[in-house]
Amino acid sequence: MDKLPSDCPYPGCFFCVMKEANPSKRRASVLKFFRELPSQDDDGQVLPISGLWNTAMAHPNDPEFINLGIFECMAALIWKGLKNRRWLSHDQNIYIPYYAAHVIGSYTMNMEEFAERAVRAGVIPPLVELLRGRLTWVEQRVAVRALGHLATYPSTFPAVADHGEVLELAIQLASSSLEIVYSHFYQFVDRRLGYHCDLLTRGMGGAEMESRKAEEWASQLQCWSLQLINCFAFKPEFLHDICKPEFLAKLPGMWGGLVNENSPAGVGLLRTICQSKLGRGHVANISGVIEALCNIARSSDDWQYMAIDCLLWLVQDPGTYHKVIDKIAPTLIDLADISTLGDYKRLGDTIVTVLQECVQQNGNSRNSISSHTKEEIDELLSFKQKLKSEKNMPKEDLHIKQAAALVVKLEGNSLFSSGNIEGAAAKYSEALALCPMKSKKERVVLHSNRAQCYLLLQQPLAAISDATRALCLHSPLNRHAKSLWRRAQAYDMLGLAKESLLDAILFINECSQSSDPDLSLRQNKVPDYAERLVKKQMRAAWLFRESSLKHGGIHCEGDASDAFAQEADDSEWETVSESDGEDDERREADDETEWKSGGHREDAYQKS
Question: Distance between CA atoms of 27 and 122, rounded to whole angstroms?
């Protein structure tokens, strides 16, 4: 057996105990350590607790410490910090409740058996006290994470739900988390608590790094609160508490930001709510939510499919379809050419079928859809019927139609070059009517060119519609660079910063991989016009923007400055074509190379 180092200043030191070579003796010593630690007032207790957190993060499925009483120990330490402020302020004990809650959350994130052990150990009451804000937002963050894991499992959810205030606290935290972090930490650089700064940066960064990490943690605080609420949303008895209009209206704006893009956040919770009839009834009554879901469904966001699910469920529900069909149908029509989206196969066909059923349902209902919406759906159905008829059409006839469409497209290009934008848009529409439905590359170009016309005509909604159709037709999906850029500009016209930002970033990504000389990045440099738009939208979509406007700017000592200060040339960004010179404005409306050789040119865009 290894001898314990004689120079260790802490009797019964956890790290010394773990060096014991005999497994039985080590387990007995660890068991004793967990039992005695909460009653001790020795210095240096934060070191083994932080070590336990590292172990829990690295080996969350290891049952050794679970069997030896780690949950009981962590719960007792949290209670000690809540009840004994003198002890909490001594040495580095202020860190202990944070690490203790983190240990609980890490050991319960994968194993239901561990979650059951944690509940029996009594971890929920002290976690709820942290969730209430008995300490600070930093402890709230890890408490809501741990409670979210416990609420995930069927066997432990009732124990969380028995604390009736948990759901209301989570809703309040999701709604106010960004403002809390901004006003309690981000805004006043010189007033930041030292242990907050240490936890955020592990002592490896200054004020700028602290601010960046604070934004990330604020997003996690909000998203983990939404995850906890999501567990309740699967239960019909809690939907009335969740579906308050003021809360539902905020959900689409809770998107995690660029710092937390892996969380479905608000749209994920809306999808859960829309799975139930009761939830759909609440969502259908808030027009702002429907509009936001339509924007997300059109976007290139990773959670696009969740918004599409919501829209389809809403129009398929007889109780809500008449309220939403006129708002939702244009978006679904734009998306009807999607073939595959993630795990969804033939999604476009599903959309067409649902819209067709809506028209049929309308004939048997007193709540009729508008004549304009019906005309748009009928037009979509005729296009799909045209696609079926083309399968039996001789190849020669298809080539003739394609050639005729090309001639009309060239006429549109000529009109565009001469400045007749309306005439060019009309010609692109005529070419679309002639172009075979199966000639997807050609139709991508026509829709994208017409989107450019609508941009110049100051018709952003029409531009978004055409750009979206081009992106849905393109292979891979949502990766046609010029359409991404045109839609980014159209979103900017409408003040939709997040959507514009995502498209602009994807545009830059596609340019970096494109072999098209008009798009490829010169000397690996992001074009100035794209950089300016991204900077503008990052300021507008900044996670703390609303909080900053409400509480004022950032206050700090020294020469630190607000990274999101307004730039002088904010409104003077150009379009893709304008920035590349006079001639590119004309070339931009003509992806003619995609029409050569009968449209069989190898696709230049690869999936990122």
Answer: 22
Cα separation values, 119 from 60, 111, 123, 233, 458, Å? 17, 13, 6, 21, 59
pLDDT confidence of residue 300: 83
And the tokens for 230?
A: 């999501």
Q: Is the CA virtual torsion 502, 504, 507, 509 positive or negative?
A: negative
8 A C-beta contact, residue 403 and residue 436:
no
- Strand ranges for 334-402 from DSSP E: 340-341, 344-345
Distance separating alpha carbons of residues 607 and 116, to the nearest angstrom: 43
Cα→Cα distances 247→276, 289, 479, 511, Å: 18, 11, 34, 39
Measured at the CA of 243, the angle between CA 137 and CA 251, to 5 degrees, comes to: 55
Q: In this structure, what DSSP letter does residue 5 have?
A: P
Beta bridge partners of 506: none
Token pair for residue 23? Answer: 């497994």
Q: How many CB atoms lie within 10 A of CB 282?
A: 20
d(CA 183, CA 172): 16
CA-wise closest residue to 296 among 91, 502, 153: 502
Distance CA 204, CA 189 (A): 17
Half-sphere exposure of 16 (CA within 13 A, CB side): 12
Residue whose entry in the numeric block shows the structure tokens 């309740």: 232
CA 185-188-191 angle, 5° bins: 80
DSSP codes joined into one string, 244-263? -HHHHHHGGG----GGGTT-
Report the alpha-carbon distance of residue 15 to residue 8 in Å, rounded. Answer: 10
Please give the Cα distance from 64 to 429 (Å, whole number).
68
Secondary structure, 3-state, 128-191: HHHHCCCCCHHHHHHHHHHHHHHHHCCCCHHHHHCCCHHHHHHHHHHHHHHHHHHHHHHCEHHH
Mean pLDDT, contiguous 10-residue spans, the chain (608 residues): 51 72 87 92 87 93 95 97 94 95 97 97 98 96 98 97 96 96 92 91 83 93 96 96 96 87 90 97 96 94 92 95 95 95 91 92 70 93 90 91 96 97 97 94 97 97 98 94 96 96 94 73 76 94 92 60 38 35 45 36 28
Question: DSSP assignment, residue 555?
Answer: B
Cα 414 from chain centre = 42
DSSP state of 235: S
For residue 566, how many C-alpha atoms fall within 13 Å in the half-sphere facing its CB?
6
